[in-house]
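Reopening this ticket.

The earlier resolution said the output was attached, but the attachment link was broken on my side. Pasting everything inline this time so it's all in one place.
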Amino acid sequence: MIKEGEKAPDFCLSGIGEDGQEREFCLSDLLKNKKQIILYFYPRDNTPGCTQEACDFRDNLNRLSIKANVTGISHDSINSHLKFKEKHGLNFPLLSDPDHKALELYGAWGEKKMYGKTVVSTIRTTVLISHDGKIKKIWNNVKVKGHVDKVLEEIEG
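Inline output:
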């Protein structure tokens, strides 16, 4: 399990960039611009909570991008991400992790309760990584409402 203050584990995943083009993204490459990285792990494209979270990041990107870059990660396919991105005008990369390798590395994959049943799936998690690659802050079991404001407070603080 990752911890604040530790080096963030590197990964490489296929994704859709800000420009709508598919390419590979590695954490080590994302860190090259010397900004903090907001990795937010979410369960599924085009579901109410995930859409709200993505749109909140989209709507606050001007404020966030002064100090950090946003990247969303789920186990959805590239095709699903492309449709989600286009439908909602998302202005940051969405990465596909169908084998949940990065999700597991970052503690965002595991058992959770859903409609009274225990399932294994994505646990809504956000990780703030400093420009030097260390984990600055982890938000586990994120509640969507007001979450982006908490992230903004942390990066501006």
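Reporter confirms the inline version is readable. The domain at 12-156 is CATH 3.40.30.10 (Glutaredoxin). Residues 48-59 form the longest helix (12 residues).
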